Structure formats: structure tokens, C-alpha cells
Amino acid sequence: MIVEIKVVPNAGKNLWKLDKADRLTCYLKSAPERGLANHELIGLLSKALKVPKSDVRIVTGQTARLKRVEITGITLTHPDLLRALGIEPQLSLFKE
């Protein structure tokens, strides 16, 4: 599975959200220097999805805020991914 993620470094907290454009956004504590934010992103994804860090790889966007991340070793649907990241409660606010 390849996921497009917008990263916001130096946010002071770790948080997953969907932005207004329905894009997955990850707020990171780490600064975007020496690969710290990328390592934190991989760690957060692997922990949330319960897969080894070696199964999470940044395909494009190593130095950009918009990244494409490949996740192997697990089969997920988009709703399953959002649920694993704790975004499901946000989605329920908009359902009637």
C-alpha cells in the first residue's frame, strides 16, 4: 500500500489528521533536519500499524513535506488505515 502523507515538522506534538482536502496529515515533534522527522514518521506509522519499521519506507519526498510512503507486510483498506491512526472519531463527527 502506498499512502500520501503531508508532514508538519516542529509541531510540538504527534498527531494524525485529515486536512480540508481530505489529505492525511501527520504533525511531528521532530525538526526536518538530518532525517529526524522522516525517522519519526516511520516510527509512528510502524507503531500504529503494528509492523516492523523495515516494512515502512518513504518512496518519494525525502526532503519535502508531501511524502509517498510504502507500507508492506500488511493488507489495509483506507478506512482501516485511518482507524489504526486514530482518525475514525474525527470522521464520525461529519456523518449524519
Mind sketching the topology for me?
Layout: E1 2-8, E2 15-18, E3 24-27, H1 36-49, E4 56-60, E5 66-71, H2 78-84, H3 88-92
Parallel strand pairs: 1-3
Antiparallel strand pairs: 1-5, 2-3, 4-5
Task: Give a quick summary of the entry.
By secondary structure, the protein is α+β, with helices and mostly antiparallel strands.
The percentage helix is 25-40%
Tell me what portion of residues adopts beta-strand conformation: 25-35%
Distance between the termini: 30 Å
Largest sheet, if any? 5 strands, mixed
**Number of helical segments with 4 or more residues:** 3
Q: Show unreliable segments.
A: none
Keywords:
single chain, Conserved Hypothetical Protein Mth637, Chain: A, 5-stranded mixed sheet
Can you describe what's shown?
Strands 2-3-1-5-4 form a five-stranded mixed β-sheet, with helices on one face. Helices cover 27% and strands 27% of the residues. The longest helix has 14 residues, at 36-49. The protein has 96 residues and is of the alpha+beta class.
